[in-house]
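User: I've been trying to design a sequence by hand for this structure and keep getting stuck. Would you show me what you'd pick, starting by listing the structure so we're on the same page?

Assistant: Good idea, let's start from the same input. This is the structure you sent:
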């Protein structure tokens, strides 16, 4: 494995051309590279994810968030890199030539402002937060998808006609807990050429890991890709939203391309990565993804040693690090401003928001949830 990125931090990732090209226009090769990297260096996963979130914050103009990591000048340089990366990709040079292209900071002119605005508009589309489609395109309804599949292959369909949840096993022993009036389907290619299933309604899926055959769930306008995890999808044909919630592991979520159904490969759009305690809601009318924390975050089941959440004249930084460890929720803060912030508290059955409220009020800080992350705002504490 290439050791170039072994010691990279959040800012180094964001400034790297290879990372940028993958985030803006992922390919099979780039996905394989970064998947291998994160397997080889699992301790870098948090910083890699933070870099992806930081890039999205810059693209969406969330200045208060991006300033946690980048100065105004550094953000300008990053926008310049994004523009050059996007231009190189559009010109068909997204391999070695894009990596070799020199990067120069933009001058602080009217051109910079117009270019930055153009880049942000383009990149929002590229990253899947807002995907525009021509008026002639049609929405990916389940019935239309199944009809198209049945014209070329045999389709197995299973509907839950009972009044309660029903457990159904797929050919590879992956399980689908179907809600009433919900249906799951798959073709004869399942577990041979691909592991693609099609869902109408609500289901919780527990997927058997198989690195050689990623698992895809097509649910109206949303595609969820996973190697092995447990997650919930809600996608009724007459519903206004499609929701994907991770219960264990991680998934990537894409906007579905109707013409790509059944391919068994990831769509070309960039993905939204979801970790435990995170969900994404896709507004079918506005075609907009909204990534959030789940309403009631829970402690991760695979944490070897959960924090006790008992503090006696402890530093707030320790509390925020405990939150990261216990819930898998990223907490963004400035460690220098919090260096002198101390508090005393003991938590037992309080929810995560209640715990954050107590600590933030005690140290004179505030927090907000941005893109499924907790962002701490503070002016610091006196020694």
């Amino acid at each position: 494995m290439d050791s170039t990125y072994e010691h990279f931090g959040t800012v180094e990732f964001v400034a790297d051309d290879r990372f940028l090209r993958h985030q803006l226009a992922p390919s099979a090769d780039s996905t394989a590279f970064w998947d291998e990297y994160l397997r080889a260096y699992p301790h870098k996963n948090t910083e890699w994810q933070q870099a992806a979130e930081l890039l999205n914050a810059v693209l969406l103009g969330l200045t208060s968030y991006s300033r946690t990591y980048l100065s105004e000048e550094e953000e300008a340089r990053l926008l310049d890199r994004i523009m050059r990366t996007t231009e190189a990709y559009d010109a068909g040079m997204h391999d070695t030539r894009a990596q070799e292209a020199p990067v120069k900071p933009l001058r602080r002119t009217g051109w910079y402002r117009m270019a930055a605005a153009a880049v942000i508009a383009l990149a929002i589309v590229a990253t899947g937060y807002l995907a525009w489609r021509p008026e002639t395109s049609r929405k990916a309804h389940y019935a239309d998808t199944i009809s198209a599949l049945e014209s070329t292959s045999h389709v197995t369909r299973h509907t839950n006609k009972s009044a309660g949840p029903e457990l159904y096993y797929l050919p590879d022993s992956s399980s689908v807990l179907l809600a009433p009036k919900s249906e799951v389907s798959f073709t004869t290619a399942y577990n041979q050429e691909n592991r693609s299933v099609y869902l109408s309604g609500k289901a919780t899926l527990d997927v058997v890991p198989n690195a050689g055959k990623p698992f895809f769930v097509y649910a109206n306008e949303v595609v969820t890709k996973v190697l092995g995890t447990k997650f919930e999808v809600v996608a009724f044909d007459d519903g206004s939203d499609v929701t994907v919630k991770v219960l264990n592991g991680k998934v990537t979520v894409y906007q579905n391309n109707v013409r790509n159904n059944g391919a068994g490969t990831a769509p070309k759009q960039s993905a939204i990565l979801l970790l435990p305690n995170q969900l994404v809601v896709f507004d079918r009318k506005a075609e907009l993804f909204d990534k959030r924390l789940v309403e009631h975050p829970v402690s991760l089941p695979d944490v070897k040693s959960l924090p006790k959440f008992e503090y006696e004249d402890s530093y707030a930084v320790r509390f925020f690090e405990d939150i990261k460890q216990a819930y898998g929720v990223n907490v963004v803060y400035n460690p220098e401003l919090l260096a002198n912030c101390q508090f005393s508290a003991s938590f037992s059955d309080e929810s995560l928001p209640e715990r954050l409220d107590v600590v933030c009020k005690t140290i004179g800080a505030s927090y907000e949830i941005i893109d499924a992350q907790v962002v701490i705002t503070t002016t610091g504490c006196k020694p």
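That's my pick for every position. To get oriented when you compare it with your attempt: Residues 84 and 102 are 9 Å apart (CA to CA). The chain has three domains: 3-126, 142-293, 310-377.
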